[in-house]
Amino acid sequence: MNDGIDNYQKSKHLSDADKIAIRYCELMATDPDAIDEAFYDELKKYYSLEEIVELGAFIGLNIGYHTFYGTLDFYPMFSPDGRLIDQEESRKIYGTEVKSLTGRGI
Fold it and tell me: How many Å apart are CA 38 and CA 92, to the nearest integer?
């Protein structure tokens, strides 16, 4: 089922609602100015106003967490295959500078 995050748009395993939610995450992290009225109209095809607000708040909070973790030289707690790992192993897996969607360290 894992098509990889870079291929989510073409995934046959994700619904259109899933895909637009991932796109929302991507835009919030990389190009928030692209989230305009037309984009919100697309979201409204799949989500209520309350769900859009909740999703946006959750995304924003997580982007903030990643920015904060970057200031602490904090590495992901999970390996690419989903195993829980310590910071030493994470550093070995991800290298000395982990990148987020924003291109900044996380």
Answer: 42
